Amino acid sequence: MKGSRGCKKSKTAALWFIVHIMRHPEANLLVVRKVYRTLKDSCFADLRWAARRLGVEDRWQFCLVPLEMRYKVTGQTIFFRGLDNPMKINSIAVPIGQLCWLWIEEAFEITREEDFDMLDEAIRGRSQSGVFKQITLTFNPWDERHWLKRRFFDAPTSGDLLTMTVDYRSNEFLDERDHLLFEQMKERNPRRYQVAGLGQWGVHEGLIFENWRQERFSADELMARPEIKPIFGLDFGFTKDPTALVCAVVDEAVQAIYVFDELYERGLTNAKLAQALKDRGYAREVIRADSAEPKSIEELRRQGISKIRGVKKGPDSVRYGILALQDYEIIVHPKCKHFIREIASYVWERDDRSDVTTNRPDRRAEDHLMDAMRYAMEDVGRSPRFGF
Q: Which one of 59, 120, 173, 266 has the lowest number of neighbouring Cβ atoms within 10 Å?
């Protein structure tokens, strides 16, 4: 279910789950958001509100540590998990019945389709008598390039899939003043109204890079042109974060960047990374890497990646790097799926207290390839006083 702001989709889901858990004594629910700490003031609060509105709050036990709800009559449980700790999702043991329902709130925050597949697998298994398996996704459809649109809305092939779009006009809890705000939005900002008002697909609010598109092209043909400059950027990672390499060429005359290859992998030692660079033919290229890892840079040099160098980082370097990139058109080859996923969801951070967009990228967003792209552009089209 995708929908606009104030369309009641989360409240409706919360009511549905309270009612149906009480109807099906073998059913248990897992509630997921990308970041665990956001669950207490969103889904947990909505489910508690639903129990209270239905007049059954006294039949439920509400626990904050760990975040959990338990139906006292049967012992059925509602579990809450964040994708920032996937191990806890795979280790859920239900005290009674079966874990058969999954609610993913703000599903748009899940930028990796493989993360959804992992969640899907968490409720697999033969259904017990009297229960059924169901996954519910609720979200605001900010970006039409998100995998949710392609997988569930463009050409769904599954017969057991229901997709819905709802908007604020279906919410009986809104008053005249609330409706007036949407009508004013319709007049002043029609583009925003289509997404925030009517729940239609649009561009992610606060998107940092809108100057990009997917397109198939030949990197070899581009590099045959004398005005083209190859660039490579590397962001180090290992266990939690991936090692991320961006491979691109730049046409400064028309201010265009063509991203033709990527490396995005966890668990790479420096030796394995060096071998991967050699296997792809990049060992002799100038690679600009995160200067916070001087030891890794030196080890890669000793492994034969002789032209790798650390980038210079000056004050406010991230913002200056982003501003420089915004002057270019960024064309991304479709095979660079991780780069596409990151750039489509790379947004400015919003201040939680004022709800105002800041001039800093959202620290919760995946930004490994975005950082690598800034590093790659260190010597391209910028004043030498700024570091990236």
A: 173
